[in-house]
Q: What sequence folds into this?
């Protein structure tokens, strides 16, 4: 599968005694130090650190210095490190960073040159395409992600309602629930995703090209603002600002939409509270699924000018393909794309939860789901939209006025201003 040969050096020790010259040759391992960085919560750190210790036990000639923190701190440091060339040898990266730091494909190491150390046979070409930049394999995706509807079947059944499949189903559910429960609840980014999907299905247009070019007109942006207000006013959803994750666990929200990789994080407490949680279909207008996106959850890359590419590649391969790492990580970063890691989890009965159901649904629709533009999740886009929604909802501005403001913001963003 790959060649992993720990580096060895010969150390010659010269011993002199009683006027005689004796030479003793000892072969000892030469240690190579590399660094590895990732972001996450304490639970991620708690399994990653012992996994790295296990790696060092298996590859005794490689020592790994770990750098980790929560997301915001990691992102800020990464900005500085990529400019100052002080990033780690192996690093967890965000999908959008491929465009940000490697627009020409030269910002990270070309992993295709390390095939003796990384097993690429357990990935499809489509899997690896998410880590390609300008024809260069810059990163390996750990798992794929898409916005997924998680439904409290217990609550829907209490009202005699089927699991929603369309936007009309959500509005009908709101009439039946009559404010006692919300059929759906969305935080800021999922609301952005869902409303863009609605507008894309309505117009038959993609909101954005892969290069970040905005295709929607000012009139179509107004339609998005009006639709948000309709969702709130007809009690399909609470306001974005009022969203409270705990209300999903308590059953007040009959469904929510979050990333596939967040399935257990959102559903486990609701299940502990006695609710039956199921996966809902991707919401459509008339069964036509447009503008619903898929992306890598996160990726691993290697520093573009690392002094130790072979050792870094050995670590990267361990992180994505080894059964040991799969055992430590399980599905915390999503269902792994690596066939070897996924088979290990399957054989050990780790793929039988709601996240696995979400993965199966995504796999079923993968040929229809659209690869997300790395620019789509840019904060200025969804935060500006959220702010405008609030202005219109509470009568501080009109949708026409805010659509004009957003159109200028989106257009200026597109032009790099």
A:
């Amino acid at each position: 599968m790959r060649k992993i040969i720990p580096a060895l050096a010969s150390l010659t020790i010269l011993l002199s005694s009683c006027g005689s010259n004796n030479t003793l040759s000892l072969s000892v391992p030469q240690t190579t130090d590399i660094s590895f960085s990732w972001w996450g919560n304490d639970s991620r750190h708690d399994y990653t650190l012992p996994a790295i210790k296990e790696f060092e036990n298996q590859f005794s000639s490689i020592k790994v210095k770990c750098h980790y923190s929560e997301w915001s701190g990691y992102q800020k440091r990464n900005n500085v490190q990529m400019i100052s060339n002080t990033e780690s040898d192996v690093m967890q990266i965000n999908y959008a960073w491929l465009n940000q730091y490697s627009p020409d494909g030269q910002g990270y190491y070309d992993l295709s040159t390390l095939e003796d150390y990384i097993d690429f046979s357990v990935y499809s070409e489509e899997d690896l395409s998410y880590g390609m930049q300008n024809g260069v394999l810059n990163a390996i995706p750990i798992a794929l992600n898409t916005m997924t509807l998680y439904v409290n079947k217990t609550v829907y059944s209490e009202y005699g309602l089927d699991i929603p499949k369309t936007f009309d189903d959500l509005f009908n559910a709101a009439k039946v629930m009559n404010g006692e429960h919300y059929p759906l609840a969305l935080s800021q980014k999922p609301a952005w995703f869902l409303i863009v999907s609605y507008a894309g299905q309505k117009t038959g247009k993609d909101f954005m090209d892969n290069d970040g070019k905005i295709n929607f007109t000012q009139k179509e942006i107004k339609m998005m603002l009006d639709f948000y207000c309709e969702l709130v006013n007809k009690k399909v959803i609470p306001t974005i600002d009022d969203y409270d994750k705990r209300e999903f666990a308590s059953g007040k929200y009959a469904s929510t939409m979050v990333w596939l990789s967040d399935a257990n994080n959102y559903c486990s407490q609701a299940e502990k509270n006695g609710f039956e949680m199921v996966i809902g279909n991707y919401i459509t207008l008339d069964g036509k699924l447009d503008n619903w996106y898929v992306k890598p959850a996160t990726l691993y890359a290697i520093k573009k000018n690392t002094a130790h590419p072979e050792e870094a590649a050995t670590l990267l391969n361990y992180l994505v393909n080894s059964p040991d790492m799969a055992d430590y990580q399980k599905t915390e970063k999503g269902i792994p794309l690596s066939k070897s890691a996924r088979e290990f989890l399957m054989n050990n009965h780790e793929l039988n939860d709601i996240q696995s159901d979400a993965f199966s649904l995504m796999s079923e629709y993968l040929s229809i789901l659209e690869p997300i533009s790395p620019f789509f999740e840019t904060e200025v886009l969804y935060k500006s939209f959220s702010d405008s929604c609030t202005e219109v909802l509470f009568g501080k501005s009109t949708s026409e006025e805010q659509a004009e403001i957003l159109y200028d913001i989106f257009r200026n963003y597109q032009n790099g201003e």
The first helix runs from residue 42 to 58. The mean pLDDT is 91.
